[in-house]
Structures are given as structure tokens and as C-alpha cells.
Amino acid sequence: MTDSATQSETKSQAKAKPLSAPQKALRKLGLVRDIDLALHLPLRYEDETRWTSLSHARDGDTVQFLAVVKTADIAFKPRRQLIVTVQEIKLEALDPALLRGETGREFGESCTLRFFNFYPSLQKNLAIGQKIRLRGDIKGGMHGKTMMHPSIHPFDNELPTTLTPVYSTAAGLPQSYLKRAVLTGLDRCIRLGLFQETVPKAYQIGEMWPLAKAVQFLHEPTVGVSVAQLEDKTHPAWQRLKAEELLAQQISQLRAKRERQSLSAPNLSGVNLSTRDAQNAKTEDISKSTHSSLTQELLNVLPFELTNAQRKVVNEIAIDISKQVPMYRLLQGDVGSGKTVVAALAATQCIDSGYQCVLMAPTEILAEQHFKKLVDWLSPLLAKKNLSVAWLSGSQKKKERQQMLDITQSGQAALVIGTHAVIQEQVKFHSLGLVLIDEQHRFGVAQRLALKAKLQDQEPHLLMMSATPIPRTLAMSYYADLDVSTLDELPPGRTPVITKVVSDQRRDEVVTRIKAQINLGRQVYWVCPLIEESEAFDLVNATQTHQVLSDALPETVVGLLHSKMQTTDKKEVMQQFTAGKMGVLVSTTVIEVGVDVPNASLMVIEHAERFGLSQLHQLRGRVGRGAAASACVLMYSLGEHGRLGETARERLKAMAETQDGFEIARRDLEIRGPGEFLGARQSGAAMLRFADLSTDQEWLDWAQDLAPKMLDNYPVQAQQHVGRWLGHKLEYLKA
User: Fold this and answer.
1) I need a labelling partner for 468 at 20 to 30 A (CA). Which of 26, 474, 553, 691 fits?
2) What domain count does the chain have?
3) Same domain, 410 and 509
């Protein structure tokens, strides 16, 4: 039976019979196909191949011994628990008489087992007189040796001959059930030849293990193998799987890129800024194209000159969108590097060509910030052409929303700006030519696919923007299917932000600093991680901080902003702060991106140790946007243990040492790893499970070199290779 036939049979059986809890858990983990099960590799290994004498065990040792149950009782104080007393059976006493239940002097020390989570099946296995094999960690104490939730195995003096794998699992899915499912799936894959070699021998490097051998070995490694090599993934079996995974990723992304190049996209007139002198770009015609007028007019009214980096990126985009294949480009730039004006110039080229442009932002505050800025720049220019800018958000009143939907569908709205509301079913475009997605990592794959699904007969050009710079190795791997433009130059006038790391014991000093800034006519942000009191975390919350600062600064207007507020209230608060009517804004991270108040010169981040590195960098970027000297205070709490954790300390150190977003991104990748840094290409399930981009550059280079050769010369093997590794995740590459 083929693998696809097995899937069909599984689906038909699922309709006829409800799934059990373990089966549901398997599906939740994405373990549907035999190949999925076989590639669900262990997190770690336990060595159950050796016995340990209980009498020789010390506190903290992991022990394995045979025992007989002496007592078993349920206690209810301090909480409900199963307490079992067992006595060790000496190995030298194992003989047929013992197995029949006859006992004498063959017993050793006693040990108490405690279970806070237990089921009737466990109680049955631990009935008085039962003989069992136990494995767990010993704790010593006044009342003798204790084991908490040890592993229970059937009584047998024959130990496993391989290391015991431990798999990542989910609620309702016991290790024993999962292991049986994994090994059954592995066996079927081997019998059906699903691990046949797809990499031609000529392209294999070094002593690469056969794939089937590598997978089997990792599920059942032999005794004597280095556990350290298995757990740090330097063993040759792991190396083969890393190579396979990276090759699948590179082939799939290269294929996705080639497929997009076969699609049709509107020809939007490009504008070449690179050939123009920076001093004259606003007064000269910057393109001979008859469709450059709106772009030229925008350049004429901008209150600043473009940086060289902006000119370079605008030109890259202009070249792309003048082609009849869809642009698929990521624009990355540090906080304040001027991505919005680049997006605006791309939009004018689109509009000049007779097409609509849509800009989608993750939050209403950020979308409104774009809307206000672009309306100021573009509305007077669009009005001359009887065109307008539309605004779509989830909080709009019905009449206003319908009006925006009508002008979007008719084409009168040349530029549409909004949140995820722009991808809702009732939104119809007249002729969509360019899609701009800001802070693209904040959108899931499903949302981006929904926007692309609104197309007519052509693909729009796609420009994704991110203020979280992506390290080179990450871009090579996760974004190999798109082009990357980088704004690596800040506009003149941006002042460096001084970063101070202080303990919350110095809170009074920080409040004094705030008073000084207010007296100078400046404004201040104070960011908190929570909205209101929580029993889970002892963190100062925004509501409480707002009250404290209001009391400490009686002559200053102190505002409060958080995600649970009504949209109209949030707008009112932001308008007051932007207009300078509010001296201090206490907020949660809703002001992380997009908020632009040049008069704000001080950012205080409460419990900075709780924030991610890129988030801290984004928050710091809200100040230093004007000419005034600015500072960011990272205020940390030592917590109940009286010390900062290693990760938190590394984050705060990085923030104090550099303002370079690219260097911060590199350190963030080191601290968190690519899975957390990007997610499943922002989907929630990482596309790389085994390869580590910080250590596997050699395999990434190999995969990049081999991918086009596989697609060109071995298309069947390339398809098999990608299907084996990515399956349903191929859909992610379309977003």
C-alpha cells in the first residue's frame, strides 16, 4: 500500500470512528503520516541499560532497580497523592523460586514513591505484592530515600540493549503510546521504501550515513554511543538529517521562487533614483516614464531629502515592479531608517500605472500612524486625479466602513490602509497591483495568504517590511525564496539614545529624571508588561504605575494606554500625547512600533528583563526621533531568587552595548535560536527542526549549491525529497 493510500484509509476510518485522546494528540502534533511519525525524533535519551544498587545511591542520583511493593495508600495532606513503599530486590537473588513469589533474604533497602498525578491503572500496577522495575531520581531526607514520579516498568531482569528515547509529546499522549506509534510508523516507512536515497551519490560529501540507517539509529541508538554527541546533534546520524532538512528547505524555496516567476503581474512604471544627484532629485524629472508624475510630485513635497540607502532601495523596488513577474521582496531596516517613505514611493508608482495599492499593518495604532503620514503626503496629490486614500479597521462604524468598501471596489481609493480588516471577505479591490505588509512577522501565514487570495487574473507585487533586521544566515535559510533590500543608513537628525540599565530599587531616581525632562518641555514613555494585577507574576502593572506617577507628578498630565481600552479611547490618548498635551504616557507594548513623537526624549521600560531583545530595541526606537538628547532606562527586578537569569542578563547587556539593530538581531538569534526568532515563517511551527544555523553553515552552503542542480537534473528525486520533509508546510512558501 502506498503512503497516500494509507492516508486515505486513515481518513475514512476517522469518519467512521471517533478519535481517541492519544490520536487527537498525535494530530495536534502534526503526526498524521507514517513519515511524520518516523521523523518525530527524540528530544533526549535515557540510559536504562544498567542497574544501580539502591544502597549505593546518593541524593540526586538516577537509579534503576527491581522492587516489590510493600504498601500503597492515598493521602490527602498537604494535597492528594499516592504514596507507595517498595523494597529493593537484590539482583543476585533472581532465580526461578523468586519469580514464583518465594522470598527470603533477597531484599535490600526500602524507598518511598510519591505520585501527585495518578490513574487507576497506575494503582493496579502498584498493588501490594507487585514486582516492578523502577527508574528515577533519588532524594534523601529524614524519612529515608524518596522518588517522585519514577518510571514504572514490568518486572524483568532483562534490560534494554539500546538507549531509551524520550519524545516531545502533548497532553493525553503518554510516552509509551507515542513510542509505539513512532516505531510502527518507522517500520512501515522502511518496508515501503520511503527513506530511499534522493541525494545522488555524486553530491554526497564526506562519510554521509545512509538516510534509513541514520533515522533508525536515532530512534534506537546502540549502547556505547556518546550521549553527548546525540544530544548536541554532532553525531553522524544527526548530521545526515540536518543536511536532508536544509536541502528540502532550499529546494522548496527555490521552486517557489521559480513558480512565482512564471506568474503574471502588472507592469508598474519604475523610477530610477540611483542615476540622479541627491541635491537635485526633488527638482529634476527622475524618470523618462510618462507615469512618474505622482512620484515626482511626492518627492517635491517631502520635507526632507532621501538618504542614499533609501534611493538604492527605491530603485531596486522600481526595477522589480516594472517587470511582468511578481516582485517578492523583504524590506528590512533598523528603527527609524525611513521604510514608510520607501513604501509611499512604491505606492505612487503603482497608482501612476492605474492600479491600487494596499498597506496592511498589524495594529490599529500602527495603521493609523501610516494613514496619517501618507494622507498628509499623498491626499492633496491624489485629489488632483480625483483619487483618495481609504481607511479600513475593525472598529469603524457601519456607514463609514461601507463608504470605504465602496470606494475601494470602484477604484476611487488608489491607496487602501488598514489592519487585518483589509483581508475580510467583503473587501473587494478594483485592480490591486501592489501589496505592502508592515511588520510582516506580526502576521501569520494564513492572513498573508488570505490577502493574496483577493486577486483577479494577476498576482500583485508584494513588499514586506520589517524593523527587525534579519541576520545573513537566517536570510539565506528562511528567506531564500525572496529578495532582501536593506536600509542600513539612518536619516540625518536622529540623535543617539543613551541606554541605562538600573535596578527597580532606584525607581525614585527615575521619577526625578522624568520631572527634569518635563521641566524641559519634553515627553516621556513608561512601558509596563502587564495591564492589571496578576497572581501569576509579581509585576508592576500599567494601571498601578499610572496612579503612582499621577500622584508623583500632580502638575503633569499622565496618560494610560493598553490593548483592552476601547479604540476611541486609545485614539484620544494618542492624539493628546502626539499633540504635546500629555507629559507622560504609561503604556503596555501597544506602542512598540509605528508611534512617532519627536518630542519624546525618555523611555522607561519596567521589568525590562521580561521583554525580548527585538522588542526592547523597538521600544527604545520610540525616542531619539527628534533633535533632543534622548535616553532609555531599562529597569529590572531581581525577583525572588535575588539574581537575574542568564538570558535576561545577556539581553540587557546587548541593549547597553549597541544601538545597531543588525547587531542586536544577531545576538537575539544567538540567544533564542531561529525557531523563536521567526517561528514557522511566523506561522507557529518552525520549518527547521534539526539544523542549527549558528553551527551548520557548511550544510547550508552545500544545500544552496545542490538545490538548483536537483531541480534541473533530478526533478523526481527533488519532489520526493521535499514531500518527505515539508508535506503541508509547502503552503507557507506561498505567503
Assistant:
1) 691
2) 3
3) no
Question: What is the identity of the amino acid at 704?
Answer: Q
Q: What is the sign of the dihedral through the CA atoms of 97, 103, 105 and 110?
A: positive
Q: Which residue from 491, 499, 512, 501 is spatially nearest to 598, judged by alpha carbons?
A: 491
Dmax over Cα atoms in the chain, in whole Å?
104
Let me know whether 470 and 511 are in one domain: no
Cis bond before residue 120 (omega within 30° of 0) = no
Q: Among 123-132, 216-225, 279-288, 511-520, name the one with the lowest average pLDDT.
A: 279-288
Using one digit for the tens of pLDDT, what is the confidence trace for 112-131? 999 988 888 888 889 999 99
Q: Is 25 inside any structural domain?
A: no
What is residue 147's predicted lDDT score, i.e. its pLDDT? Answer: 93
Tell me what the mean pLDDT of segment 64-90 comes to: 91
Percent of the residues in the chain that have a pLDDT greater than 90, as a whole number: 36
DSSP per residue, 58-77: -TT-EEEEEEEEEEEEEE-S
How far does the chain reach from its first CA to its final CA, in angstroms? 34
166 vs 488, which has greater pLDDT? 166
Chosen domain end from 427, 453, 487: 487
Q: What is the pLDDT of residues 156-179, one digit of tens each?
A: 777 888 888 999 988 888 888 999
Question: Which tens digit of pLDDT belongs to each residue from 359-404?
Answer: 888 777 777 777 888 888 888 899 888 999 999 887 788 899 999 9
Same domain, 451 and 557: no
User: 420-456 burial string, b = 16+ CB within 10 Å, else e?
Assistant: bbbbeeebebbebbbbbbbbbbbbbbebbebbbebee
Burial annotation 20-37 (CB, 10 A radius, 16+ → b, else e): eebbebbeebebebbbbb
Lowest mean pLDDT among 315-324, 489-498, 680-689: 680-689
Positions of E strands within 467-574: 483-487, 497-503, 523-527, 558-561
Q: Does 184 fall in a domain?
A: no
Cα–Cα distance for residue pair 41/183, rounded to 1 Å: 11
Give me the torsion for CA of 378, 384, 386, 390, rounded to 10°: 10
Q: What angle do CA 298, 302, 308 make, to 5 degrees?
A: 95
CB 131 within 8 A of CB 67: yes
Q: Which has the minimum average pLDDT: 102-111, 271-280, 518-527?
A: 271-280
Residue 426 grid cell = 467583503
pTM: 0.68
DSSP string, 8-60: HHHHHHHHHSPPPHHHHHHHHTT--SHHHHHT---SEEE--SS---GGG--TT
Query: Can you tell me which residue has the cell 514513591?
Result: 113
CATH of the domain at 301: 3.40.50.300
> Domain span at residue 66?
50-159
